[in-house]
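Lab manual, section 2.4: Encoding a predicted structure.

Procedure: take the sequence of the chain (225 residues), apply the prediction step described in section 2.3, and record the output as structure tokens. A sample record is shown.
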Amino acid sequence: MRLRVTLAAATLALGSVFVNAAPAQADVEPTIIGGGTVSSAPWAAAVFRNGSFTCSGTIIAAQWVLTARHCTGSAMSVRVGSVNRTSGGTVANVTSYSVRYDLALLRLDRSISTTYMRLASTNPPVNSTNNIYGWGMTCYSGCGASTVLKTATVRVTSTSATDYYGGPAIASTRINGNAWKGDSGGPETYNGLQVGVASTADGSSRQWYGSVPASRAWITSVSGV
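Recorded output:
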């Protein structure tokens, strides 16, 4: 059985440590890994710690970004509205954050006007085709995080799984790509609504996303969305 690792990234910071060991390279298909690039994503949020890219995320309201809890730390900032994590869009600092399971809501130091990601109130059906997005590594090793936002399609295998912190999660398997390090905090969508937040993956074909619908009431209580 392959080990699950958090998807938090640190592909740009030497010496970064992941909580669990990665799977053997033989377990990994050399092909987000796979998928394709995105030309427009006004809701996209690249998350940084101490100036280094760390995770993916989404802006859900003028001053609120949704990402993964294991992405949080000190000196955080975000770049919103650009598919390129190194330029464009709007940069804002994070003043505080709230967490539940492996979800985190980041409060920004300014309001950003854009098209916000809409959130689902129910989990996607098992066997449905969903989309995942992120700036994660494009291969298992020897490459950094993608400069341009990527997307891939996955098939839902369970809505009774758990995320890294034991919270409700959506499990899926690759169709044309899979999540990997750097995709943490990025969205899984079904019919244009965000249903999940990237939490863990096996580095080959499977990923587990914290359920947005399961924490919908909490998200509203914190952000008003």
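Check your result against the sample. Confidence is low (pLDDT under 50) at residues 9-31.
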